Amino acid sequence: MARFELSIETHFSAAHSLRDYPGDCARLHGHNWHVKLYVECTELDELGLGIDYKVLKSELKEALEPWDHYNLNDVPPFDRINPSSENVAAELYKKMSSRLDNERVRVSRIEICETCTAMVTYWP
Ligand SMILES: Nc1nc2c(c(=O)[nH]1)N=C([C@H](O)[C@H](O)COP(=O)(O)OP(=O)(O)OP(=O)(O)O)CN2
Ligand SMILES: [Zn+2]
């Protein structure tokens, strides 16, 4: 079976602080969070596309809107769990899977970079 992995990248701006963190990241600070979305496709459509990059970009943009230019600690579920890169990646994976997964397409992983020297990859 053929498999294609497509990816798109974007960023959003948001503040966060890590509750109970023993250091400077417990203080409110901001990042331009870099996001990479990967989807796996097993079949192409009649145009030869796994899924249109434009669809991926608009769905990701919409999913990030509740976080963009907010303090993540104020936004569910990060009002309860720490807005670490790990938790942000896992939450975004859930959001994007519910938007995109179907019989041909599946979100495979999410990468999040808080800074250009620190990043996480999440897949279930
Ligand atoms: N495993 C994780 N560790 C840390 C997280 C995280 O989400 N997961 N987050 C932070 C802080 O939020 C911090 O903003 C990022 O830390 P760091 O990469 O150290 O950022 P600096 O700008 O301080 O980088 P320097 O290279 O030290 O200048 C911390 N840890
Ligand atoms: Zn941070």
UniProtKB/TrEMBL annotation:
Q: Which UniProt keywords apply?
A: Lyase, Metal-binding, Queuosine biosynthesis, Zinc
- Which pathway does it serve? Purine metabolism; 7-cyano-7-deazaguanine biosynthesis
Task: Enumerate the Gene Ontology biological process terms.
Answer: tRNA queuosine(34) biosynthetic process
Example GO molecular function term? 6-carboxytetrahydropterin synthase activity
Q: Which cofactor does it need?
A: Zn(2+)
Superkingdom of source? Bacteria
The record describes how the cofactor is bound as: Binds 1 zinc ion per subunit.
One Pfam family of this protein, by short name? Answer: PTPS
Catalytic reaction equation(s): 7,8-dihydroneopterin 3'-triphosphate + H2O = 6-carboxy-5,6,7,8-tetrahydropterin + triphosphate + acetaldehyde + 2 H(+)
Residues the record marks as active site: 25 (proton acceptor), 69 (charge relay system), 114 (charge relay system)
Family statement drawn from the similarity comment of this UniProt entry: Belongs to the PTPS family. QueD subfamily.
Q: What is this protein called?
A: 6-carboxy-5,6,7,8-tetrahydropterin synthase
Species whose genome carries this gene: Mariprofundus ferrooxydans PV-1
